[in-house]
Amino acid sequence: MKKLIIAIDGPSGAGKGTVARTLSEHLGYRHVDTGAMYRAVAWKATQEGLPLDNEDAVAALSRRADIVVEGGIVSIDGHDVSRTIRTPEMDKAAAAVARLPRVRETLVARQRTLGEGGGVVMEGRDIGTVVFPQADVKIYLDASEEERARRRLNDAAHTGGKAGQAAVAESIAARDRSDKTRTASPLTLAADAEYIDTTGMPIEQVVQTVLEAVQRKLLHP
Length: 221
Description:
- This protein is α/β, with parallel strands linked by helices.
- The chain has one domain: P-loop containing nucleotide triphosphate hydrolases (Rossmann fold).
- It has nine helices and eight strands.
- It is globular.
- The termini are close together.
């Protein structure tokens, strides 16, 4: 049976991570969180004191860095940053880094290498449009800003401190604006992606909906 490339895109808090992880476990596929790669580069740049708008310096860092995103662990140059990169500060830093065209060029090339051959569930914001426009299955997950803020606030993977839901909602709205207006690979809905509004949907229902799309592709390549 053909091993598929499954692209899951969408904004912050839409459920990409949970759905992608669950789907990969169900199918026995690799799970690649591309957003974690940008976060790792942002963390490393911050550690080295690099201005995040210095494209030359950050792009050079992204080229030389050893980045591993595997099995729920994220590391860069041997440092496990799995939890360190899930903070409001790193949200902002990653958004800044993600706007840099040469950084995106480097990381997209790495992502294509990770996904070639199929058997992968790759999540991000430009997987179905830029990284793998020929992906076998393209899913775009979305939800209302209020719903996404509530999820992010309750997500143990994001150590947000005591920020209220209004503050989290504003942070998410700012990230949306950054992702949708950047010149390099903006967040957008691929013409052939299946759009799923997950507002009010139990995660099990979302996963089942995506699984049905995958099964349709497996039955009718």
